[in-house]
Amino acid sequence: MADTEPMIHEDGLPGHESALDRQPEWQPLYPGSGRMAGKAALITGADSGIGRAVAALFAREGADVAIVYLCEHDDAAETRRAVEAEGRRAITLAGDVGDKAFCDRAVAETVAAFGRLDILVNNAGEQHPDQDIRDITEEQLRRTFQTNIFGMFFMTQAARPHLKRGAAIVNCTSVTNYQGSKELLDYSSTKGAITAFTRSLSENLVGEGIRVNAVAPGPIWTPLNPCGGASPEKLKDFGKDTPMGRPGEPNEVAPSFLFLACEDARYMSGQVLHPNGGTIVNG
């Protein structure tokens, strides 16, 4: 359908991590301890940024990883190398999470490759800054919701038959859900929907022994913002308005995903963690 085509030709998103002047810090910060030994994880948006950091950390902790991404093949190949350097198996799956058929195929190929699926990380997302609500086109509005929230429904629907007791789903929401963002009206709205989805899905699955939680990052240095996801005015002071006075790095966010995905968080479901540089939010 035309209204769900990836908007990569409009603004260059999702963007190449390899093209950034300052490379994000995605490498795991600590030695592994086997917290995900024998597990298989599917991570969307895993070619760069937070997704790459999560993939590398999961691999260090013992997981095999399916790297789902849109179109940045060079970045995805680097993530695969990072996973394999930790001694784990990796597959790369290129496609649009807003396409239900692709989500079905991605899950099927993951299970075929690894024989199981234990962890689903719904991380893929897109954003497009606009100063005026009247500038948000119908195509952009549909596309942002298609990727950011429809994609989570589609991927979870595909994964559900393979998730057994003890499995975990971790969704990526945002500080903009709690604070709002005057430049990201459509994006912030999808992040609010993701938080509600997380809490509702938790209620739906907790009785089956499947935990569902979320992470709400603050401003994190990834390709998304410098490649068109933020206005030039916002980008020049990106992250400086946090109490810590700087943007975060992907490897400062990944441990939140690890905690929620592993048995350390076995008594947590329906919750949101906030790696955001010290910003206090209700939630």
Automatic annotation (TrEMBL):
UniProt cross-references to InterPro entries, sorted A to Z: Sc_DH/Rdtase_CS, SDR_fam
Per the record, a Pfam family? Answer: adh_short_C2
User: Which intervals carry biased composition (Basic and acidic residues)?
Assistant: 1-24
UniProt keyword terms in alphabetical order: Oxidoreductase
Region entry Disordered, spans: 1-27
**Superkingdom, taxonomy of origin:** Bacteria
Q: Name the PROSITE patterns for this protein.
A: ADH_SHORT
Protein family: Belongs to the short-chain dehydrogenases/reductases (SDR) family.
Q: What is this protein called?
A: SDR family oxidoreductase
Q: Organism, per UniProt? A: Sphingomonas quercus
